[in-house]
Design brief:
This protein has one helix and eleven strands. By secondary structure, the chain is mainly beta.
């Protein structure tokens, strides 16, 4: 029987296996990051989710280009358009905490002026 999973479903613990394609390590558990079929490789101890296409999730150090989709009093939603120069059509968005909007705008203006 194939196990159908959705994002956030637990596939195992980090003590048992490593996160593979379309999964992530939340600090204690390996969880699905996309909808698909869970595939646990017991020999190599890797959990992954097969869905026919890879979900592009940026990693630390990646260069991300996005469009601000919404601005609320405490957060900003950004639609991710490119990751490391490659188009991203998965509809992935990130939520950025916006504790001090004025400070963010000042930093943004400093970055814009440094480009000139």
């Amino acid at each position: 029987m194939e196990d159908f999973v959705v994002p956030g479903d637990t596939l195992g613990s980090i003590e048992e296996m490593e996160a593979g394609n379309n999964t992530f390590d939340d600090g204690s558990k390996i969880r699905a990051s996309t909808i698909g079929i869970a595939n646990i490789d017991k020999k190599n101890k890797i959990a992954q989710v097969e869905n026919g296409k890879q979900l592009a999730i940026p990693k630390k150090g990646d260069i991300v280009i996005g469009t601000v989709a919404a601005v609320l009093s405490s957060m900003i939603a950004v639609a991710i358009n490119y990751i490391n120069g490659k188009p991203n059509s998965t509809g992935l968005e990130c939520i950025c905490q916006n504790m001090d909007r004025r400070k963010i705008m000042v930093q943004y203006m400093q970055q814009l002026t440094s480009l000139n």
